[in-house]
Write a structure and sequence with these properties.
This protein is of the alpha/beta class and about 260 residues long. The protein has one domain: Alpha-Beta Barrel (TIM Barrel). Strands 1-2-3-4-5-6-7-8 form an eight-stranded parallel beta barrel, surrounded by five helices. The longest helix has 20 residues.
Length: about 260
């Protein structure tokens, strides 16, 4: 059975923090996927205090981490060490990385390999990043790139459904078929949001706001892989939208189970 995750940032200690504790105690979700904004090691103890299981998400290009370019290597490693401190302190079993922007996927594989970190999962990306010019390209948007990075670095895979659909549309591939192909890489985590399935750009829509066929997705992905819900949080004071998305997903899961009996 799928465990359900909540995506937060390590700097979300003045909002969402208390609400997350409340929802976890009510059994709404099973773990937190914590994105690490660099420069905030002082917040580790705050997150340790809540005693919730954690996954860790490393910084990406928005916070100047770019594994696909050699000139970033020293700074990438420094950011990884910070991420590792979070992962060790919070007993995280996985650390999720993006492949980078406008670089070489082989360089991404080399740098991840040099981390010598068994918990790493590489996440697939859209072909083009959101809110950037069309000249920019994400590394890890194609099946062949993810497969190479995994084989070179011996890391695992995090399958982002929305990213896969965006990449498929950019490549002229039928989206659900492309997801089926990515599933052959044996994902250890799933990122799931709703989306306009004709879009080339990631949207992180709340469930029911797009046209994703959730039943089809749940029939494609492995039955026991954890699902992190990565949808928009409109409020800065509560997680009501997230709770609604959890109920939406759990109702579909329950209906799928009932149909089999």
């Amino acid at each position: 059975m799928h465990k359900i995750g909540l995506k937060l940032w390590n700097i979300n200690t003045n909002y969402y923090y208390d609400e997350a504790i409340h929802l976890y105690n009510d059994g709404i979700f099973d773990y937190i996927e914590l994105y690490i904004v660099p420069g905030h090691l002082n917040l580790i103890d705050k997150w340790k205090d809540i005693r919730i299981p954690f996954d860790i998400h490393a910084p990406h290009f928005a916070h100047n981490m770019n594994l696909s370019k050699k000139e970033y290597e020293k700074d990438n490693y420094s950011k990884y060490i910070e991420v590792k401190e979070y992962a060790d302190s919070l007993n995280a079993s996985v650390i999720i990385f993006h492949g980078g922007i406008n670089g070489d996927y082989k360089e991404t594989g080399r740098q991840i390999k040099n981390f010598n970190e068994s918990r790493i999962l590489i996440e697939n990306k859209p072909y083009q990043p959101l809110r950037m010019s069309e000249d920019n390209k994400c590394v890890g948007s194609k099946y062949e790139e993810i497969k190479y990075i995994m084989e070179e670095s011996r890391c695992g895979f995090c399958l982002d459904i929305g990213h896969a659909i965006c990449s498929a549309n950019s490549q002229g591939i039928e989206p659900y078929s492309y997801i089926e192909k990515l599933v052959t890489l044996n994902p250890k985590r799933i990122h799931l949001s709703d989306i306009d399935t004709t879009s080339k750009y990631d949207q992180h829509l709340n469930y029911g706001k797009g046209n994703l066929d959730f039943k089809r997705i749940l029939s494609i992905i492995p039955k026991d892989v954890n699902i992190t819900i990565e949808t928009n949080k409109i409020s800065k004071t509560d997680l009501d939208d997230y709770a609604d998305d959890v109920y939406y997903l759990k109702n579909i899961l329950l209906n799928c189970i009932n149909l089999k009996h």
